[in-house]
Sequence to fold (98 residues):
Amino acid sequence: MWWLLTVIAIAAAWLLAVLLDFIPPPHAKILIKIHEGQFKVIRGQLRARPREFVLDILQQAGITSGHIAVTYYNRAAFSRNFPNGVRQRLRNVLLNTP
Fold:
């Protein structure tokens, strides 16, 4: 019985971490990680033009760490350290650029 409670607690903690944007969603089709100012596409592909726009936005905002995820349902998820204005600009680039 204790193992079932442990599994439920771990699953709840993981789900809460995803919902609060501490970790990226596991079902992302594009996953971008930013670490110490280095930009890397971990999963999926990002074309050259949107990549340049995203880099410009991140540099202007001074964001040096975090993650950006685009899901199969065309939703964007960001780390908690992204301000709302930056999130919207990134959504516009990632979800509207062919």
About this structure: The radius of gyration is 15 Å.
